[in-house]
Amino acid sequence: MKKTTVSTLLLGTLFALGSQLAVAAPDWTKVPKRDINVFHPGVTPIEWVGKKSDHSGTAGLKKGETCAGCHEEKGSLNFNFKRLADKELEPKGAPATMMYPVGVQAAYDASSLYIRLTFKTPAAGADKTDKDNEVKTTVMFPDAKVAQAAQVGCWAACHLDAKSMPGADDKKTKYTKEGSYEFMQWRSAKGAKVVDGTVTSERKMDGGVLGAKAEGAKTGDTYTVTFTRKNPGEGKTVPFGIAIHGDHAGGRFHHVSLGYTLGLGAEGDVKAVKQ
Ligand code: HEC
Q1: What tens digit of pLDDT does each residue of 104-161 get?
Q2: Among 115, 154, 167, 173, which has the minimal tally of Cβ within 10 Å of its Cβ?
Q3: From CA 63, how far away is CA 70, in angstroms rounded?
Q4: Quick check: CB of 61 below 6 Å from ligand 1?
Q5: Are the beta carbons of 19 and 234 closer than 8 angstroms?
Q6: CA 262 to centroid of ligand 1, rounded, Å
Q7: For the segment 217-252, what is each residue's pLDDT rounded down to a tens digit?
Q8: Whether the CB of 7 sits within 6 Å of ligand 1
């Protein structure tokens, strides 16, 4: 009698587990992980990147080279971080950790694209103006009308005269000169709403069309954030960039990735697995 009770209980647990797995798509154990490094960019907006006297990459960019094509080297980024922490490019003060890796996984099914980010946020940031959120995690997608969308990642939305840049207007948000970005943001504050936003002539924190959902958790010192957005379409290569505001950072004091691409049954720096 007792034996039956135990096995019924066990079966019950197994069923419960089974149905949980069925709804919690995708199975991340079957999805390869690629590290993408994020770094503190200082004050290097698109105007800086495109000015020959500031940046040697200007000519290469015009020829179609990507940021990552020049700056990714041996699984790391070849930036001169002393320069990026120096008064010239970072007047306010740089974070103790200038670069760290983010594990990126992607999967999709008929309706949705899932992106999972795993990372440790370093302490000792340089700006702690977001009192509510220890961490904010953002993924941005430029559309095809953004100039050099697949080359420059988020940079076409990053301008010298936008909020939190030195001497800039505090009300001026990120913007684009042409095209737009869709973005989704997860915030660590309890009960915080997932942002489904856009960047056009200004940044809007809602009204986006991604159908963004996100879940995040901290285990030990590691954050795992899983985003869901609507599937952009089989056979598509989608440009994207990642930004992480760690240690209560606000404004431009995020660590950002260069521009990468995500392939859904197509070429991409990160290949989304069909499930
Ligand atoms: C054709 C190659 C090339 C491309 C493309 C390129 N860069 Fe650079 N970048 C360089 C070189 C070389 C330097 C270092 C010396 C300099 O700036 O004069 C540099 C410097 C930098 C620096 C300053 C830190 C340092 O190491 O001096 C930043 C930030 C930067 N690039 C960002 C970008 C971003 C963002 C993009 C894409 C929008 C990009 N670069 C595209 C070649 C490139």
Answers
A1: 999 999 999 999 999 998 988 899 999 999 999 999 999 999 999 999 999 999 999 9
A2: 167
A3: 12
A4: yes
A5: no
A6: 22
A7: 999 999 999 999 999 999 999 999 999 999 999 999
A8: no
Work out which ligand 1 atom sits closest to the CA atom of 59: 1
Rounded CA separation 125/29 (Å): 32
Residue 42 CA: nearest ligand 1 atom is 29
Could you tell me if 95 and 124 are in contact, meaning their C-beta atoms sit under 8 angstroms apart? Answer: yes
Q: 206-245 burial string, b = 16+ CB within 10 Å, else e?
A: eebebebebebeeeeeebebbbbbebbeeebbbbbbbbbb
Which of the four pLDDT bands, split at 50, 70 and 90, describes residue 4? very low
At residue 220, the pLDDT reads: 93
Residue 176 near residue 169 (C-beta atoms within 8 A)? no
State whether the beta carbon of 85 lies less than 6 angstroms from ligand 1: no
